[in-house]
Amino acid sequence: MAGYLLKNCAAVIVDEGKGPSVLRNVDLLTNGRAIATIGEGLYKGDLPAGTIVEDASGWFVYPGLVNTHHHFFQCFVRNRADLDWTKLSVIEWLDRIYPIFSRLTEDCFYHASVTAMAELIKHGCTTAFDHQYCFPRHAGKRLIDRQFEAADLLGMRFHAGRGGNTLPKSEGSTIPDVMLETTDEFIADCARLIDTYHDTNPFSMRQVVVAPCQPVNCYRETFVESVALARDRGVQMHTHVGEGESPVIESRYGMRTVDYCAELGFAGPDTFYAHCWELTHDELRKMAATGTGVAHCPEPVYLVGAEITDIPAMSAFGLRLGLGCDGAASNDNSNLMHCIHSAYMLQCLMASTRTHPVPPPVDFLSYATTGGAGLLGRRDIGRLASGMAADLFAIDTRRMDYIGTRHDPLSLIAKAGIGAPTDMTMINGRIVWAKGEFVGLDEARLFAEAEAALATVEF
């Protein structure tokens, strides 16, 4: 693979392991899948044979974003007035939306994944974790296989969260029977996927996470067996925690969700939870003590109208933090860059009510880069430095949109918010999106195929 020389970058956000900083008017050289060096005057030196030179004048170059919680399949249920949270109670909404999910076909899951990943890439995301917990019986067991296929098509670095639900609705879950699996089915398919796809080599493009959907929708044994498999195979674990279910778990087991998961061993440096907005400070301290991380999804707060996650407390207690888009059931876009802005602004809104100060804007960029990489157990992505994966995106700031903002690239995304696609996104040393196009792909064809798959679903 040829390397790239990004010549005369206006700013590069670098991180040698001690936090992000800015280098001005420098070049960035890649070598295959990795960053070779970042510095002044590289263009004047001898470049490796085959190096492609890109004029990066005016570009702010950022580390690729790392999405730590999503539900790609929900992209086929977006912008629907009949499913508006403001018009339905939570129970009414669940009763209406899960039957829709249960009608999706294998092709729907594939094309929804292409849809979500494409939007993520357009907005600077280079690594995506998806929590795929919906397995309708008629759709079969190869849904995550198709997600890896979609990731290969687009060039996305992909961590697949193999989710599942095992508790029947008759016993207190919200899941239709057609979407249920046994614990043995779930664990067996997790093992199959790990054996088939999980790659621990540097710059790996494929990894698998054991991710039972949530404690309220699974038998206790499902989590016990998940822990046993994940620890035996050395993979990460993930689930939903602290999004309103703690009273239910307490009524079933005599303890709230954080203590319940810890008792089962579903906690630790290899584990991260999604959401966690309802947790007490004592519960957050317990998570910090075990090294358990949090994938914070800010934009669902707007629709759900529940508590705003206490990020200042999480930061003060030393919790590992990443950012996620979440699925379209509670966020109608797959734009992680926009989530950086939303996360920061929501915390500013609540600043006067918090015990701890709002972290600075640059920390929210870090949650979406180094923080996300840490949650996924990756040391080779999430920051720009020699030897790290060549995952990055560039914004040409020579536009009216950026007048008055260019003095502080570190705070730009969190404070100003960026709605437009990037000018370039590179993953694993390959440019996958540039000048408004997916390199080597026909977006019109991808659109038509996804629309055709969507049309097969009866709503």
TrEMBL record:
Keywords: Hydrolase, Plasmid. Residues 60-432 form the Amidohydrolase-related domain. Belongs to the metallo-dependent hydrolases superfamily. ATZ/TRZ family. This is Amidohydrolase. GO terms for molecular function: hydrolase activity, acting on carbon-nitrogen (but not peptide) bonds. It comes from the Bacteria. Transmembrane segments: none annotated.
